[in-house]
């Protein structure tokens, strides 16, 4: 990647602002939700270890979220077709569940994860759809140009942390995960997620009443363990998860600044 292309990507990330469904301390309101981004990028060819990771905070109860879910599906399809190490996770928050439609995939723990990022960046409010790229940047999840620019910048970084995952027994209610990590920062964490692709819902109440919503890489189970050199974890498989559409995503995250430094994913059914 040339310096000119990187500079263009940084300008795209920095220059765009848009609006989503926002929740602040005073309750839901409609307002922009973007943060100032200060990337540190070296102009170099993409490393063989290079990766990017996108965490989308979304809700079936937010009328601004279906376009972001559609974009996530398109980007995921591209990455899987091209074999690019770009990881996508859809965290469904629960603070819109009282507005007529309860998101079947929502969790208070996922809202807390979004709050963790907001606290780290000094933000008082939460909004959906919010995309967090690499634990470094945040943006409106439906803004394609900005999201692609952040992914491009992430792929330009040389990565020194590698994560390997091997799956053991996978049953209707659990999957065994063995992991090996090389080059993790001291005191780092390993985030493990069971995600499911190709889900579809049509809410019969709320802001998205009657609107078909396609969902990709929805987080069904999420655990955090110490990023040891070698380790083992057992992930719960919720009822109804289709193994042929499920993957385990593993990524190393620093405790202090929440930057994600390495990651990988493995399908339950190769």
How would you explain this protein's 3D organization?
The protein is of the alpha+beta class and 270 residues long. It has one domain: Immunoglobulin-like. It is built from four helices and 16 strands. The protein has a four-stranded mixed sheet. α1 packs across α4.
The SS-based structural class is alpha+beta
Written as H for each helix and E for each strand, in order along the chain, the element string is: HEEEHEHEEEHEEEEEEEEE
Overall strand count:
16
Low-confidence stretches: 1-18, 24-47
Shape: globular
Structural domains: how many: 1
Gyration radius from CA atoms, angstroms: 18 Å
What's this model, at a glance?
The chain is α+β, with helices and mostly antiparallel strands and 270 residues long. The chain has a single domain, classed as Immunoglobulins (Immunoglobulin-like, Sandwich). It contains four helices and 16 strands.
